[in-house]
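Summary of Year 1 activities. Much of the first year was spent building the evaluation harness for sequence design. The harness presents a backbone, in tokenized form, and records the residue chosen at every position. We chose the following record to illustrate the format because it has been used consistently in internal testing since the harness was completed.
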């Protein structure tokens, strides 16, 4: 096999070649670095490429595997992580000029655990500033979708989605507070999983909302996603909010057998008038596939879902402002204009409003858990629309526009973090060429700490459909 073809292989395929010593980690890392050099200028997926560090770790992995010390399916695999996560000796900007020169002295726990599993870190991936969705000023370049560079790749783990889809890394980590793993996974055509809150340590992760932030894998296949997820899970004494529960072998759980599994199609997220017809059709076609595989599918109502965005954003504005109070007070003008507005809004939210959304969050979470008491998983579109074209961003000028932005955005994802349950986005089709031909994602929501179930549901679907076999031509 030609070296230039290696980046297009899955983690599963690459791990077999590495273990058999048919490919060396050095050769593989060189192949990825060469592809990054060629393609990244068109995508702006990376903020920092750590070539020297990657090659150093590749040589170490090559020596260890050569001695027969192969430690698992990520050993020698080149990966990349969202620039929200600390990386020892490699700058971590959080996509902001405020942190342009910040070089952590230690790794985030999730990054450290990937390295312990033998992964090779290629670099840090682009994102919206402070993962807040700011889009007026993107100091490290506008991230672009590899399926068509005129289109959005998704926010805020935009670089993770674009780099993974474009084979600029074998697999990656993103971070999901509202939907920032699932959003770019849907629009960039990859598999992205937000674990249960507390499943993965947030130590070394720049925070947004302490009770919702969660790192997770973004990969080109469900099996690769399961392989990436396993090592980063588990209790971490550095993060007291991690939960000490057993970590299953997610890869071994991929049987593809979903006969008798009960699935609830969330009506509010599927039949909303803002859901594009092609997205709804792709979702219903996926439901038909699940029926053919022996699952039982029924519609279910989660009445507060339509209000999840405004519940989420009230949390976000208040908690981000409190967390970064020092910078908001003294360096506000250095933030993206959109972030400035969010910080100032958060500083003005009355305490009784924040208390009210806390109560609403509790009600929504109970509705989701009640639905998951009836069904093994819940199903919906990940996003209301396929990726749109990149265009200049403008703040709303009227109250009605502001309310529409808060309540009617493109994502169907905030219900999940508000409920602290896991969810995954898996490709389920493509829009028509008239609509840009961009990927469409299906959201699978599970019970707390049942990531293995949603991965297996996605695996069964993936094996029965052709979407994962496509790749962008870039």
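For this record, the design step produced the sequence shown next.
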């Amino acid at each position: 096999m030609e070296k230039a073809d290696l980046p297009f292989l899955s983690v599963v395929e690459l791990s077999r070649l590495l273990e058999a010593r048919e490919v060396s980690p050095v050769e593989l890392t060189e192949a990825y670095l060469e592809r990054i050099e060629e393609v990244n200028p068109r995508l702006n997926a990376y903020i920092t490429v750590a070539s020297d560090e990657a090659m150093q770790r590749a040589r170490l992995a090559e020596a260890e595997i050569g001695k027969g010390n192969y430690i698992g399916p990520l050993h020698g695999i080149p990966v990349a992580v969202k620039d929200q996560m600390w990386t020892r000796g490699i700058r971590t900007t959080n996509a902001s000029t405020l942190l342009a020169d910040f070089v952590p002295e230690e790794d985030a726990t999730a990054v450290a655990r990937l390295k312990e599993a033998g992964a090779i870190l290629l670099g840090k991936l682009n994102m919206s500033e402070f993962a807040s969705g700011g889009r007026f000023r993107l100091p490290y370049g506008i991230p672009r979708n590899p399926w068509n560079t005129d289109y959005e790749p998704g926010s805020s783990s935009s670089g993770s989605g674009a780099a993974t889809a474009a084979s600029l890394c074998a697999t990656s980590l993103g971070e999901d507070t509202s939907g920032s793993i699932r959003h770019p996974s849907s629009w960039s055509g990859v598999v992205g999983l937000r674990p249960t809150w507390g499943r993965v340590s947030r130590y070394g992760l720049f925070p947004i909302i302490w009770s919702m932030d969660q790192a997770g894998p973004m990969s080109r296949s469900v099996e690769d996603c399961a392989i990436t997820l396993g090592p980063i899970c588990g209790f971490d004494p550095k993060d007291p909010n991690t939960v000490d529960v057993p970590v299953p072998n997610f890869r071994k759980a991929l049987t593809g057998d979903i006969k008798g599994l009960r699935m609830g199609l969330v009506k509010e997220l599927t039949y909303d008038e803002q859901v594009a017809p092609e997205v709804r059709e792709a979702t219903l076609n996926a439901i038909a596939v699940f029926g053919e595989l022996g699952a039982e599918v029924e519609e279910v109502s989660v009445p507060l879902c339509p209000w999840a965005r405004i519940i989420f954003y009230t949390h976000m504005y208040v908690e981000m402002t409190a967390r970064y109070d020092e910078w908001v007070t003294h360096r506000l003008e250095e933030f993206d204009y959109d972030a400035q507005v969010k910080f100032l809004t958060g500083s003005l939210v009355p305490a009784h409003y924040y208390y009210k959304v806390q109560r609403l969050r509790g009600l929504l979470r109970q509705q989701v858990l009640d639905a998951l008491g009836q069904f093994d998983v819940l199903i919906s579109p990940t996003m209301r629309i396929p990726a749109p074209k990149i265009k200049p961003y403008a703040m709303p000028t009227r109250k009605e526009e502001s309310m529409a932005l808060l309540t009617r955005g493109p994502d169907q994802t905030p219900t999940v973090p508000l409920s602290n349950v896991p969810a995954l986005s898996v490709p389920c089709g493509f829009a028509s060429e008239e609509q840009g031909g961009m990927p469409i994602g299906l959201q699978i929501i599970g019970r707390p700490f049942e990531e293995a179930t949603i991965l297996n549901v996605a695996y069964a679907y993936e094996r029965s459909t052709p979407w994962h076999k496509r790749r962008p031509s870039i």
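The first helix runs from residue 11 to 19. Quantitative recovery figures across the full test set are reported in Table 2.
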